[in-house]
Amino acid sequence: MSSSTYPQLPKRRAEDSGRDSASDRERILRLLFSLILLASVSALGWWYWRHASGFSIVRDGSPSWSHDSKRIVFSSEDHGQADIVTASLTGADREEILKWPTDEAEPAFSPDGKRIAFSTNLDGNYEIYTMFADGSSPTPLRITNHPARDTAPAWFPGGNKIVFMSTRGGAEYDIYQMDADGSNVQALTTGGSYWFPQVSPDSANIALHKLRDIYVLNLRSKAMRRLTYEPANGMHPTWSPDGRQIAFMSWRNGRTELFTAKSDGSDSDQQLLVSMPTGDAVDPSWSPNGQYIAFVHVIGKVAETQQRVVYIVDVNSKRLTRISK
Question: What 3 state SS string does 145-205 have?
């Protein structure tokens, strides 16, 4: 081989390297195209199956009872927005009573059944409104007006006051009360992380959860009584109508279930009430007649396909009835 051959080697290696790089790019582009095509076909197939089979994703939540225990109000998502609907105890007679182009959440019947308090982000951040329970005019009345987030309204038994949670005191939620028209706002907790307040039937106490445990706040003394202890945690409390028990959700067994406990904390033997075969049971709400607890069954972890279905459970027989359509 002559010496004149050697100078050609770098050029050939460069040409070979260029061909390899082009080939690699081509393989990568083919792979990306295949992945995009597969994702598109899968999405089209999922859309077709949903519509052809009549399957739809249910996203209902935050149930609350009418004063006579005959109807339930709850939020229901449609095309990404949560609206307010009511239904009978069989799920029939479903009626959409408020549909705004924003989210409406956490509706709560007033004790006389005439009004519903709820939160909405209509004004750019969550505020609390009230409306007539039948959805009639006039339009809902805004009763909070603060740049912080106000949410989770619950009525005092007399109907003259509302308790709610708000970030107006700082980054975390605290509990506040106000008159039913939004006036005379008072802080009930400060400097903590307090969630989902519920007033006792005698108006003397508020059940809430702080971090991951249930507490009862005495409104006169401001003393806190703790009912659950992490890891046997409790959240989202609701009172029995006689005030002797509190139902709540807990994931102490690995997934979220519903439990009951004596409200005075005298019995540490907390009772399992609802454990669904799959998924989680959350957001309990005890009926005024004491017979039922409404709750939400959460199925799935992926946001796009997760379902949230409202049920009621008979406290004595444990019989379940689906309320969501």
Answer: CCCCCEEEEEECCCCCEEEEEECCCCCCCEEEEEECCCCCCEECCCCCCEEEEEECCCCCE
For the segment 154-189, what is each residue's pLDDT rounded down to a tens digit? 999 999 999 999 999 888 999 999 999 999 999 999
Q: Dihedral of CA 42/43/47/50: which sign? A: positive
First vs last Cα of the chain: how many Å apart?
A: 85
Cα-based angle 95, 256, 50 (whole degrees, multiple of 5): 50
CA 66/CA 161 separation, integer angstroms: 17
Interatomic CA distance for residues 17 and 25, integer angstroms: 12
Residue 291: burial class (beta carbons within 10 Å; 0-12, 13-18, 19+): middle
Instruction: List, in sequence order, every residue forming a beta bridge with 224; answer none if it has no partner.
Output: 217
Count CB neighbours of 247 within 10 A: 26
Residue type, 150: D
On whether the CB atoms of residues 310 and 61 are closer than 8 A, the answer is yes
pLDDT tens-digit series, residues 267-280: 778 999 999 999 99
The CA dihedral of 213, 214, 216, 222, to the nearest 10 degrees, is 20
For 25-160, strand residue ranges (E) read 60-65, 71-78, 81-88, 95-98, 104-109, 115-120, 127-132, 141-142, 150-155
Q: What is the DSSP string of 196-259?
A: EEEE-TTSSEEEEEETTEEEEEETTT--EEE--BTTB--EEEEE-TTSSEEEEEE-TTSS-EEE
Question: Residue 213 in contact with residue 230, Cβ under 8 Å?
Answer: yes
Condensed to tens digits (0 to 9), the pLDDT of residues 96-108 reads: 999 998 889 999 9
Around Cβ 121, how many Cβ atoms within 10 Å? 16
Residues 91, 321 contacting (CB under 8 angstroms): yes
